[in-house]
Write a structure and sequence with these properties.
257 residues, alpha/beta, Rossmann fold, seven-stranded mixed β-sheet, two-stranded antiparallel ribbon, 8 helices, 9 strands
C-alpha cells in the first residue's frame, strides 16, 4: 500500500477509506465532519511546563485520612516533577444552594481548568463516596458553554476505609470520571483500616498500601505526559463536530435540571 496524504497533514494508505468521500455504503455518515485518525495527528510538541495535577479529598475532619493520603500523593507527584494543587473543601456550599459565583466554587473551577490531571480520594461511607467528595465533583461543570472543562484530563482514584478493604468508592469515582469524560488510569488505591496506616503526624507508614500509592502516582504521571498534549484530538468526537456550540450547550447544561 502506497502512502498518500489524508488532506489534514496526516498520512493514509492508498487502500484506506477516505471518510470524507460520499459513499452509498454509509448513507447516514455526514462526510463533512468525518475524520480519519492518523499517527501524525497525535504528534504534538511537548508542553514546556510540568504536568499540572489537582488533588481532591472527601473529609473535613481534623484527622482526615483521605487528606493524609492525598498529601502523600502530592509529595510523590512533586518529587516526580509535577506541579500540584490541593483543594480544601471547607466552606464549599452544597450544590444548588447558591450560585457558581461563590468564591469556593470559583476557586475549585479555576483549579479544575488549570489542571491536566486530577487525583480524587474519598473515604467510603455507607458503601459510597462521601457527600463532601460528591459535592466537589458536582460543582465542576460538565460544560461551560461549548467547553467541557474536564474532557481529556487524566484521573487517578483512591479511597480510605475504616474496616476491611473495599472498592465501592473507587468504583463510583470511576463512573463519575467517565461521565466527566476523563481518562481514568487503570491502577487505583484502596487503603483498609486507614487509622492504622498513618502516624500521629499524618505520615503514612511503609506498607504494601503505600507501595500501591507510589504505583498509582507513577502511572498517573505517565498517562498525563502521554496524553496531555493530544487530549484535544483524543476527545474530538464526530457527533459533537456536527453539533453547533449553542445546541451542545443546551443539551449538556446541567443548570436546567
Amino acid at each position: 500500500m502506497s502512502p498518500v496524504s489524508d488532506g489534514q497533514g496526516g498520512v493514509a494508505t492508498a487502500d484506506a477509506p477516505d471518510l470524507r468521500a460520499p459513499t452509498a455504503q454509509m448513507p447516514a455518515l455526514d462526510t463533512a465532519f468525518a475524520d480519519l485518525p492518523t499517527a501524525a495527528k497525535l504528534a504534538r510538541p511537548t508542553a514546556g511546563h510540568p504536568p499540572r495535577i489537582l488533588l481532591l479529598y472527601g473529609s473535613l475532619r481534623a484527622r482526615s485520612y483521605s487528606r493524609f493520603l492525598v498529601l502523600e500523593a502530592q509529595r510523590l507527584l512533586d518529587r516526580m516533577g509535577a506541579e500540584t494543587r490541593v483543594f480544601d473543601p471547607a466552606g464549599l456550599p452544597l450544590p444548588d444552594s447558591t450560585g457558581p459565583e461563590h468564591p469556593k466554587v470559583q476557586e475549585l473551577r479555576a483549579l479544575s481548568l488549570w489542571s491536566e490531571g486530577q487525583v480524587w480520594c474519598s473515604p467510603e461511607r455507607h458503601g459510597a463516596v462521601t457527600g463532601i467528595m460528591k459535592a466537589q465533583i458536582d460543582w465542576i461543570p460538565l460544560s461551560s458553554g461549548a467547553i467541557r472543562p474536564t474532557q481529556g484530563k487524566t484521573l487517578a482514584v483512591m479511597e480510605v476505609s475504616g474496616g476491611s478493604q473495599s472498592f465501592n468508592a473507587v468504583n463510583q469515582m470511576r463512573i463519575l470520571g467517565r461521565w466527566m469524560r476523563m481518562l481514568t488510569i487503570p491502577n487505583q488505591s484502596s487503603v483498609a483500616k486507614a487509622f492504622q496506616q498513618f502516624d500521629d503526624a499524618g505520615r503514612m507508614h511503609p506498607s504494601a498500601y503505600y507501595d500501591r500509592v507510589v504505583d498509582v502516582m507513577e502511572e498517573l504521571m505517565k498517562f498525563t505526559l502521554l496524553t496531555r498534549d493530544v487530549s484535544p484530538t483524543l476527545a474530538n468526537r464526530y457527533s459533537e463536530r456536527r453539533e453547533s456550540a449553542e445546541m451542545l450547550s443546551k443539551r449538556v447544561n446541567q443548570g436546567v435540571i
